[in-house]
């Protein structure tokens, strides 16, 4: 599900689909659709609540701040997994465990890079919207 949503997010941002709140609305709606198709009732309910809150309170500044928070959490998670990996290597854990930890580190790095790219695109969108308003 995450890869589909990220692909959708990147395509929306690359098309300059409107202001950030509109883009975020479309992303949440897409996540709800995917959750519904995947029979993830709890996820769908949570996303529906998130969509309602988003529609009430959305502004571009909060979207960028939340994206930065997501990046910071991923950085922390990456540090933890890299530490776990180093510790496993130092203790001489079996190669299967080390391999799994290496894969987790790679997955987090990919996700982090994607989230950073999204943040850069969001900031670019805000700058372009501000330029148009001048």
From TrEMBL:
Coiled-coil spans in chain: 61-129
Assigned keywords, A-Z: Coiled coil
Any Pfam family: DUF1090
Domain of life of the source: Bacteria
InterPro entries: DUF1090 (IPR009468)
Protein's UniProt name: DUF1090 family protein
Organism of origin: Helicobacter ibis
């Amino acid at each position: 599900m995450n890869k589909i949503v990220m692909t959708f997010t990147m395509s929306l941002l690359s098309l300059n689909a409107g202001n950030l709140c509109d883009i975020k609305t479309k992303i949440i709606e897409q996540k709800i659709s995917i959750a519904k198709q995947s029979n993830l009732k709890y996820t769908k309910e949570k996303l529906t609540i998130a969509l309602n809150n988003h529609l009430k309170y959305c502004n571009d500044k909060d979207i960028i701040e939340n994206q930065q928070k997501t990046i910071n959490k991923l950085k922390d998670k990456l540090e933890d997994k890299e530490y776990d990996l180093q510790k496993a290597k130092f203790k001489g854990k079996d190669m299967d465990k080390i391999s799994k930890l290496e894969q987790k580190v790679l997955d987090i790095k990919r996700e982090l890079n994607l989230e950073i790219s999204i943040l850069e695109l969001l900031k670019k969108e805000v700058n372009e919207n501000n330029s148009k308003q001048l």
